């Protein structure tokens, strides 16, 4: 496809975490053009949750059933995305349902990506949030329940926005490029954007 449908998208692999999905979606809708969801769950189907959204919101989501997959599920899903949908978008990042993309500058996500278009990979880093002493689930948004970063708040673990046309494959959530095409920008100081990573939530949910 020479003319991608989207400038940016997010690819999400999710397994039986539908109770958090609405918050995650409505956080990311304003940031990106389209969201691809690989549903690896064994309980309520993601499509059942999505069907309750407005037609406009549903049009911004592609759900790919991905049940009964074992082994390297994440890596296989990401590579399936690249081969099947990669040409539909210029940029993509692969997130989990406990990861929230946050913009740290006055620019929009399209402006950031356009400004860095000479790079094939833009690395964005995590701010970590733990249980913060909370033992049980509460029926409130994750980002309202956990407001204080953990002691290991900023790490050098990262995800990346990638230009999909230039990626050979994914290994876990790391892109593999031809050596001559690996032009990478690292936003270590989090001046552009970062990921809030809610890796445990409460002890009950963990």
Describe the structure.
With 206 residues, the chain is α/β, with parallel strands linked by helices. 20% of the residues lie in helices and 32% in strands. The protein has helices spanning 21-28, 46-50, 55-58, 73-85, 109-115, 142-145, and strands at 6-14, 34-39, 61-65, 89-95, 99-103, 121-129, 154-163, 169-171, 174-176, 184-186, 193-198. β1 (6-14), α1 and β2 (34-39) form a beta-alpha-beta unit. The chain is globular.
Q: Which band does the percent of strand residues land in?
A: 25-35%
Average pLDDT score? 92
Q: What is the general shape?
A: globular
Low-confidence spans: none
User: For the CA atoms, what is the radius of gyration?
Assistant: 17 Å
Structural class comes to alpha/beta
- Helix proportion: 10-25%
Q: N-to-C terminal Cα separation, in Å?
A: 42 Å
Largest sheet: 9 strands, mixed
SSE succession = EHEHHEHEEHEHEEEEE
Q: Write down how many β-strands occur, each being a DSSP E stretch of 2 or more residues.
A: 11
What topology does this entry show?
Blueprint: E1 6-14, H1 21-28, E2 34-39, H2 46-50, H3 55-58, E3 61-65, H4 73-85, E4 89-95, E5 99-103, H5 109-115, E6 121-129, H6 142-145, E7 154-163, E8 169-171, E9 174-176, E10 184-186, E11 193-198
Parallel strand pairs: 1-2, 1-4, 2-3, 6-10, 6-11
Antiparallel strand pairs: 4-7, 5-11, 6-7, 8-9
Write out key terms for the chains shown.
206 residues, alpha/beta, two-stranded antiparallel sheet, 6 helices
């Amino acid at each position: 496809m020479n003319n991608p449908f989207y400038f940016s998208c997010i690819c999400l692999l999710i397994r039986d975490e539908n109770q958090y999905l609405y918050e995650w979606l409505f956080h990311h809708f304003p940031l990106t053009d389209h969201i691809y969801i690989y549903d690896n769950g064994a309980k309520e189907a993601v499509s059942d949750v999505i069907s309750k959204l407005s037609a406009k919101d549903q049009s911004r989501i592609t759900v790919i059933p991905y049940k009964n997959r074992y082994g390297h599920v994440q890596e296989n899903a990401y590579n399936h995305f690249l081969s099947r949908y990669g040409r539909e978008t210029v940029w993509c990042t692969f997130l989990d349902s406990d990861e929230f993309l946050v913009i740290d500058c006055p620019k929009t996500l399209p402006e950031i990506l356009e400004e860095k278009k000479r790079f094939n990979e833009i690395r964005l880093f995590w701010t970590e949030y733990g249980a913060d002493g909370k033992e049980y689930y509460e029926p409130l948004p994750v980002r309202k329940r956990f407001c204080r970063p953990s002691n290991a708040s900023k790490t050098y673990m990262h995800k990346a926005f990638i230009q999909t046309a230039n990626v050979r494959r994914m290994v876990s959530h790391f892109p593999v490029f031809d050596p001559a095409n690996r032009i990478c920008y690292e936003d270590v100081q989090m001046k552009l954007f970062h990921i809030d990573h809610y890796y445990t939530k409460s002890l009950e949910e963990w």
